[in-house]
Amino acid sequence: MIKKIYVTFLALLIATSNCYATTEFVSTFNKTGQCYSSIQTWEDAMDNAGDLTDATVFTGDWDNQVNSDIADGTAVTWDSGSSGGTLVHMTATQYLIDVTSGSLADNDTITDGTNTFDIDGTPDDVILVLEIYSDSGKVSGGYLLDANGNTCDTTNYLWVRGAEEDRHDGTAGSGVWIETTTAQYMFVVRTGGTFKVSWLEFTDTNGAASANPLFPANGTTFISEYIIAHSIRPWWAIHIAGIYYNFGAYAWGGIFYNCSIYADGDDCGWSNEICCHTCTAYNTVLFNENANSIYGNFYNGSGDYNMSNDTSSPGANSIDSQALTDIDWVSVESGTEDLHIETTSTAKDAGDDQSGVLTKDIDQETFGDDDTWDIGADEYVSATPATPSLTKIILISKLWLEALKAGI
After folding, report:
1. Is 157 exposed, middle or buried (0-12, 13-18, 19+ CB in 10 A)?
2. Whole-angstrom Cα distance, residue 287 to residue 48?
3. Please, which residues have CB within 8 angstroms of residue 154's CB and are 6 or more apart in sequence?
4. Dihedral sign, CA of 68, 71, 75, 78?
5. What is the DSSP letter of 334?
6. pLDDT tens-digit series, residues 208-233
7. Order of strands, edge to edge, in the sheet holding 185-189?
8. What is the DSSP letter of 277?
9. What is the mean pLDDT of residues 82-106?
10. Which residues does residue 162 pair with via DSSP β-bridges, in sequence order?
């Protein structure tokens, strides 16, 4: 069986003293007309941007182009050669330059000696974004990303995310899939500062109990949001509103917000345990089918307003000893896992306001929309009865009048 884990994260971006605006520089992968042929190729190209924290990166529009685009990683100059840098990448609407000498200004002419274009705009801080699509199906392989070439902070960072049109709907198999076939780790992050991953589904197909989708090195603030993960190890990170299935092994440290975690007790690795050493958890629900697991180790930390099927939930307002029928998820059947809650769930209206960290659930519905937060990644929202249209009301009235005339 497959265990599901649902975890969603929301990053809080803290303003720095930099006076520039922040602009996303978006590249694409796994689609027709993609910018890069793999996740790692994108990261290697972005290495040319170097330190993202020193405001030397420019992204914007251009005009008066002569000849063709300038290739990634090409040295460029402007100001009659007195200023220079590296052209990191050009898309149809943006370009990215790392300035190594001088400064960039509106109307500067960029050249590599043959190709030229004029800057149209002002420099911005940058968030380097890779959007992954599902045009060619799952993204598979061993080490899919080793991020080690940039220095980031809370304003300037790297962000890998599922493209909006291909995002999952909170259930298994509905979005952009990332799977490992050979390696222990899929994403290894050594950037330092902030690295963000959103709207992806991670899975392991090599049968290793130690498959770990995301592995941040010391010094990295790793934020994972709106993630579905199954048949894998978890990772060291900050987790926000996500779903985990077949959750085995451990996360060491980290903070969990509004996560739903289900372990079916089968082929989970690490003695089928759910554990999180020195973690903090808020509004998080865990259930493990394996009664012999070291389940209590998950909540070897602090937090409040949590829920579990044993008595390990930290916090005076947490709810313990819950059966699956109490939690009342839509489905935990292998292949059809769906950790949305039903109206009778004990997780409903049992959470605490965490709007300082996140506001949206896995479906992008507002937590606490009924004035009280739910525990887990899903905020239960009742269906709104359809309102009859004016046309239907007129039609019904007409039929009623005709019936009266006919004496019915």
Report:
1. buried
2. 45
3. 12, 13, 14, 16, 193, 194, 221
4. positive
5. T
6. 555 666 777 766 778 888 888 776 65
7. 145-147, 185-189, 212-216
8. E
9. 88
10. 132
Across the range 375-395, mean pLDDT stands at 70
Q: What are 102-137's pLDDT values in tens digits?
A: 888 888 999 999 999 888 877 788 899 999 999 999
- B/e letters for 265-281, b = 16+ CB within 10 Å, e = fewer, are beebbbebbbbbeebbb
**Six token digits for residue 347:** 């997780």
DSSP annotation of 370 reads T
- Select, from the ranges 209-213, 290-294, 386-390, the one with the highest average predicted confidence (pLDDT): 209-213
Assigned token pair, 103:
């400064």
pLDDT at 354 over 90: yes
C-alpha 183/C-alpha 26 separation (Å) is 28
Find the angle CA(131)-CA(136)-CA(142) to the nearest 5 degrees.
75
Instruction: Say how far apart CA 299 and CA 219 lie, in whole Å.
Output: 23
Average pLDDT over residues 230-244: 64
3-state secondary structure (DSSP) of residue 41? helix
Alpha carbon distances (Å) from 364 to 170, 237, 398: 10, 21, 41
Provide the 10 A C-beta neighbour count for residue 66: 11
d(CA 167, CA 163): 6
What is the C-alpha separation between 313 and 353, in angstroms, rounded? 18
